[in-house]
Amino acid sequence: MKKKKKTHDAAAVNGLLVRRPIRRWFPLFILPTFVCFIIGFVWPFIQGIYLSFCNFNTPKDASWVGFANYVKAFSDTGFIHAFTNTASFAVVSILTINVIAFLIAYALTQKMAGANLFRTVFFMPNLIGGVVLGYIWSMIFDAILKGYNTYLTANATYGFWGLVILVAWQQIGYMMIIYIAGFQAVPGDMLEAAKIDGATGWQTLTRVIIPNIMPSITICTFLTLTNSFKMFDQNLALTGGAPNIMFNGAKVNMTELLALNIYNTYNINAKWHGAAQAKAVVFFLLVAVLAIAQLTATRSKEVQQ
Amino acid sequence: MKEKKRTEYSPGSKILTAFFILLCLVWIMPIFEVLINSFKENAYVNTNAFALPNKDSFVGFANYIKGVTFGNYPFFKALGYSFFITVVSVAMILLFTSMTAWYIARVDSPFAKIFYYLCLFSMIVPFQMVMFTLTFTADQLKLNTPYTIPIVYLGFGAGMAIFMFVGFIKGLPLEIEEAAAIDGCGPVRTYFWVVLPMLKPTLISVGILEAMWVWNDYLLPYLVLDRTKYMTVPILVQYLKGSYGSVDLGATMAVIMLSIIPIIIIYIFCQKYIIKGVAAGAVKG
Fold first, then answer.
1. Residue A136 and residue B141: Cβ atoms within 8 Å?
2. Lowest mean pLDDT among A235-239, A263-267, B95-99, B179-183
3. Is the CB of residue A106 less than 8 Å away from at least one CB of chain B?
4. Residue B138: is its pLDDT beyond 70?
5. How far apart are CA B121 and CA B284, in angstroms?
6. Would you say B282 and B209 are in contact if contact means Cβ atoms under 8 Å apart?
7. Is residue A199 within 8 Å of B96, Cβ to Cβ?
8. Which residues in chain A have Cβ-Cβ distances shorter than 8 Å to B153?
9. What pLDDT shows up at residue A10?
10. Residue of B137, B238, B275 with shortest CB distance to A44
11. Residue A102 near residue A210 (C-beta atoms within 8 A)
12. Domain coordinates in residue numbering, chain A
């Protein structure tokens, strides 16, 4: 009872001393961010949804066509191929990145000489931009493949695994940092209790450590999932979608991921602008659903603290 | 006084260290490759990229001189624009979104709530969803110069920043702000003298994450900027590779090296903050 009274008072004081005076300064505190947010996000988003139902060259000459753009988008073989390509790329890179980052983080949190230096080295590729990364690796892959008398864009398999290696090199360091923070947050007394109870190293890992670092696993799978679906720069710079084949009279870029496919669709010509925007809306829905589903699924497995 | 004991490493841990030394060498191999090839004549980059420069292939800084001048856009101009856009955008994001976040965290109005949920929503929207329409809007409002593009970055980057700041501010004790108010501070003074200094750890986190994004961003400036006049480093690298890269790989490697060097220097000096900032930022996200 007493406690309730106190929060009530605090709220009143808050209202009187902090809240009301801030509200008077609304233009200063909210307006700059809000105006930019409208320009940079809200308006383009709404206009994007609207234009996905239109034929347009610029927004001024837009004419309503209903779902025609969506039909056109889904009947495009390139788009379907980009979708399956992105899905398999996401699965492979989520697994490689998280498993390797987890193992490295586990090793680096043990008593080991030079752990800090190793951490610094592994994280470094993350600071390099996607376009630059793409060109570094295309040079390296071409040099390796030259030994076998071939080159990176000769075969879609090379391009696919090349991108997996590139992205692993870039992101393992980042995920490793998050896993290290997770390992360091495992309560010491729990580890001690496990030791006293005679748990083996494997049991400690699977029964004590992994449940406790579930939040890190959630974050890292979430980040790697959304990163792989939104992958653009690296894809553009490494292969640019090459090689391409003709399929039913349409050009299909074999190593193209969804984001690059949307971009390339827009650049075919003005007749494809609407379909590109429709693809973008589908892409947004896909990323949003995946992100939310993944977050709720892994969050439910986290240890309550 | 703390007595420092020499840590004893078990044989197993020594083997692990040796393994990690090897792994780290593999890890920096790509950068090393760029470095050696940036000193080799183009023909040698094509025939044997893995060989160290020798008497025949070594060309000194010729590739670098060629790299910063070839094309019709000087490299250092692009570097300057990249630097300017990153610094101004990050400064604006930090200042304005932290102010907004304080308002949202302390004022419980429907507007503040709706704005906050819109920010959360914006975090799951991929750039491709808005890129075409954002380009039109930016063109119409004449936001296509390096001096105005920070407005676009503030708009599109606000979501994550506000989310992180609100999370942090909600954990701050209200009593400090009340005390400031009782002592006669208005909201503006309270914010700049009391709240902002307490935000320092989150300011560092958000600043690093946003700086990494803006500096390396390719597509947004490519679409928004008037490319006949303004290029950033990623745009220039893409442009050079597209037009000259197949012609002169050596010079392209020199440009890539030049674009990596500033990042590595900053990383060496600030790695503690960068790694801490990333860890803290991710845990909150």
1. no
2. B179-183
3. no
4. yes
5. 16
6. no
7. no
8. 40
9. 58
10. B137
11. no
12. 2-51, 71-299
Residue of A17, A36, A137 best to disrupt the B interface, most CBs of B under 10 A: A36
Choose the closest CB to B128 out of A43, A136, A280: A280
CATH code of domain A71-299: 1.10.3720.10
* Paired sense of beta strands A250-253 and A63-64, if any: unpaired
ipTM value greater than 0.95: no
In the numeric block, the tokens 């105006």 are attached to A35
Q: How crowded is residue B110: how many other Cβ atoms within 10 Å of its Cβ?
A: 7
pLDDT of the residue at A39? 94
Give the residue carrying structure tokens 């920043």: B161
Write the burial class of residue B61 (CB in 10 Å: 0-12 exposed, 13-18 middle, 19+ buried): exposed
Output the pLDDT for position A48: 95
Is the minimum CB–CB distance between B162 and chain A shorter than 8 Å?
A: yes
Q: Per the CB < 8 Å rule, is A33 touching B154?
A: yes
pLDDT (tens digit, 9 = 90+) per residue, B10-43?
787 888 899 999 999 999 999 999 999 989 888 7
Please give the helix or strand (H or E) that residue A250 lies within, else none: strand A250-253
Residue type, B9: Y
CA angle A145, B38, B21 (to 5 degrees): 70
Instruction: Tell me, yes or no, if B177 comes closer than 8 A to chain A by beta carbon.
Output: yes
User: Quick check: pTM over 0.95?
Assistant: no
Which residue segments constitute the domains of chain B, with CATH numbers given? 11-69 (no CATH), 75-247 (1.10.3720.10)
Nearest neighbour of A280 by CB, restricted to B129, B278, B279: B129
